[in-house]
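Pilot study result, target chain (233 residues):
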Amino acid sequence: MNKVNKLKSFIALSIIVFIPFGLMLWIRNHQSTGFASIELITYPLLFGGLSITILILLKKYFLKEKLADLNSGLGNWTTDIVWGILLTLIYFGLFYIERLTLANILEFNSNVELLGLMLDMRESPLLLLIWFGPVLWIGIALYEELIRVFLLTSLWKWSEHIIWNLLVILLSAIIIGLAHWSQGPYGVVTIGIKGLVSGYFFYSKKRLMPLVYAHVLYDGIQVALLLLTYPDP
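Predicted structure:
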């Protein structure tokens, strides 16, 4: 990749990844109160949907790249679902290992906002449908995995050296882990570890949708279990 294309790539990454993630960290660090339930519904949809749209426009018209780059590996919807399920099992395996090890070392900040939303969803079937529908699928899973894949594929174009490719996987895991700073050191590290798995999977398979399916299943199952088991206030 020549210098001009590298500069354009960096500009696109700044617009869609670096600046928004930096702003999110700044807002979280300076926020005196948490988000209300309705904000946890609308913000992911608006921000995630807008970011996805901007990403597509940047890739197609500014970078002059094919959208197929984000899902260029061999596969179909059946294999994508199978890989998504396998990734989910790996994520939950890591979850339990991390609880037995890192939870005793690193501080964890409880997601009070999500608990509040969950209690509200118990009382509102509409909120439940919206969160498990477009919010989870588009505002959370598709958005985060598109960002991950865009970051990976953009930086991989800078060099084909395997060491660089692996460093990019590490960098993407760190960036996405830090984006969850509000969950405390435990959240940052554990999400970063799962980011390494996600990044290496995409490196080997070049398929986006298994990552989306796994993200939906992993987050959705946890929230569903909380909905069923968390005691009423």
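One observation from the pilot: The chain has one domain: 3-229. A full batch analysis is planned for the follow-on phase.
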